[in-house]
Each structure stands twice: as structure tokens, then as C-alpha cells.
Predict the 3D structure of the following.
Amino acid sequence: MSIETRGMQTRGSSLASAASQDTLENLIEGGEPVTKDYVDGVVSRLSAQLDAIASVMATTDDLVISSAISGVWLEGKIVGEANWSNYSPIFVAPYAMKITSAQCTFNFAMNTPTVQSTANVALRRFRGTSGSQIVERPMLGNAPVARTLWSLDGAAWNEEARVLQAGDVVAFGTSVAGAFTVKYPVAVTMKFARV
């Protein structure tokens, strides 16, 4: 549809006042009068179409980062340390945001964890030299399956630590007990919302 503006001289009145008279003349080629109700209907339909388009576009609530960690290889296994010293940084926050979800996918199956031989997986926020645990999930009782989503969402989250400031670093780490070996690589995917 081609809309022309010929014949729309204000002659001391604005387009708004012409609309309030319930008739806008000469908007559509051919000079047919267009009522205010017709224009309102077109605007309403266009607004609904724009809302539908916006609903499928990425928003700041849909920010996702995925990072792969190869680990230190020894026949496909990492030599685990029984402490939190082996963190791998996976993300630096570009602005204030909150981690809303996190999942891991391990490439290899691991031995079944036992009370004497297990591991915990964690995300940790580092702000300068200070670190705060964001979330930690034990493998005991719910070991990850190879190449299958293993969510951290069901674990206890530190609500303060999951909120990042610009420049905060998120790191992935494991804590190993006994002879348990965490097998890498692992992919970590996090979802964020801007705050």
C-alpha cells in the first residue's frame, strides 16, 4: 500500500485535530476518506505483528555463553587434585548480569562415585583476588552421563555470588575425594539476564 501526503495541508490545524474530527482525507491514493477507527485498527495490527517479531528475537534475558575446558590430559583423564586450586576461568562479565542457569556436558563416562571416591563440580566468581562459590553440585548419587546434559540448576545457588559486576570472572572447578578421576573435556553453558 502506498501512502501519500498530498493534500495534507494543515491550514492552521494539526494532523491530530484532523484525526479528532474522525476523518483523515487524502491519505490513500485515490482520495478515499479514511476514518480514525480504520487508522487505529491498522496501528493495532502492526503493533501486534511487531510484538510477535520481538517475541522471537534475542533479548538480554537470552544471553548464553558456552565454554569448553580441555583439562590436563592423561589418556583422556585429568589428574584430579583434592582441593579447589584447579579452577579454569570460562567467562568475564562485560556488564552487570545474573547467572540464571548453568549446565555441563562431559565427553567421557566416569566411574560411579562412592562415599570414599567422588567429586564435586562448582562455578566460582572471582572479583579481583576474592572468590565466592556460585553453585556446587556433588557427583555422588547423580554422576554425569557422557555427552548428556548435567544441570547445576537443582543444586544450591549462592544468590549474591550469581550476580556479576562488569569484570567479574566465572571459573569452573572440581574438588576430588579419594581416587576419583574427573574425565575431561567438559562444556559449560550458562544463561544470563542483565541486571
User: Anything to note?
Assistant: The CA atoms of residues 114 and 140 lie 6 Å apart.
